[in-house]
């Protein structure tokens, strides 16, 4: 006959197994997962992600030195007076280009939740992002070359002060008045499209390079909004083929971006289930043995 201690230990083990099964399988006896699980883990754990970022910034460093040597070089297609401008600049996006916010996304996965803009705004105020590998090294090299750094980000202008303090705390160069931080809705600009903010930079600077994680960080037109489609995005990207890897450097972001929003028609108020249903229509498979 088993002792009371043995029975007690058995009960504890059974309870632990039950709790784990509940966590893993959930209420419907299906294995628990999340549409962003692998993407978050790739960013947080894989050497492949880290080295892809290192690779991007090393390429950026090579190309920016080449750009300095060519007075006609510009990373803005519509900038026609590049040779006449004495100041030079590099434009960088912030989130998932310079700042790693994967813990914000990771918490969504752990909560089995979905993106909420109110939570993002709170994260911008109090979150603790880290640096993308080699981003700081690249930015410091720009400083050594006397190249001005501008951050064009869709972080909220209302959280501008918090963002300035965050950048300072991470050792990133930011003007005391935040002049080189162009957030979403920075006066007099409006909205998430970055074209008008790029224009602010290019008025006084020859833009040597743009670095971002989203097609919309580099160019406008058919990229975001209700009229954007996979075809319009492909057309815009292909039209600028000669810029990629030379004047435009992209940092990998498998978690989110306009590439994802276009799959559900930028219907951001849709439920998680509606978005997933729309996404599945784009998945290609092959049942061949």
Per CATH, what is the topology?
Answer: Rossmann fold
SS-derived structural category: alpha/beta
Any low-confidence stretches, pLDDT <50, length ≥5?
none
The CATH level-2 architecture is identified as 3-Layer(aba) Sandwich
**Percent range for β-strand residues:** 5-15%
Number of strands: 7
Q: Biggest sheet, open or closed, and with what strands and sense?
A: 5 strands, parallel
- H-E string: HHHEEHHEHEHEHEHEHH
What is the share of helical residues?
40-55%
Rg result: 23 Å
- Count of individual helical segments: 11
Per CATH, the superfamily is HAD superfamily/HAD-like
The total domain count is: 1
CATH class: Alpha Beta
- Calculate the terminal CA-CA distance, rounded to whole Å: 54 Å
Main sheet: strand order = 5-4-1-6-7
Q: How is this fold's topology laid out?
A:
Blueprint: H1 4-25, H2 37-45, H3 47-68, E1 87-92, E2 99-100, H4 102-110, H5 117-126, E3 130-131, H6 135-144, E4 148-156, H7 160-169, E5 181-184, H8 195-202, E6 205-212, H9 230-239, E7 248-250, H10 258-261, H11 272-280
Parallel strand pairs: 1-4, 1-6, 4-5, 6-7
Antiparallel strand pairs: 2-3
Helix pairs in contact: 2-3, 2-4, 3-6
List keywords for this structure.
289 residues; alpha/beta; Rossmann fold; two-stranded antiparallel ribbon; 43% helix; 12% strand
